[in-house]
Task: structure prediction
Amino acid sequence: DAPKILLVHEPDFADFAQNRGIMLQLSGHSHGGQIRLPRVGALLLPFGGRKYPMGLRRMPDGMWLYTTRGVGLGMPPVRINCPAEITLITLT
Result:
């Protein structure tokens, strides 16, 4: 009966994690897309990070998913309109 938290690198794994009694999935991988244009969004997202590239969302089964933009860089090694972040999550 304890709450279950899933740490998985690729946020798109949430589609498979749903309906398994998981309360929260924490992910990274996509860096938020690194280069984001207004009204367009991310120009390039990696496999496994295309559906849920950043932020907090509630999945249809009620599971929460948080994808951090993180502090690292993929290729190309730049960030435009997508600042790095360090996230503090307090569980109560």
About this structure: The mean pLDDT is 95. The longest helix spans residues 14-17. Residues 31 and 72 are 7 Å apart (CA to CA).
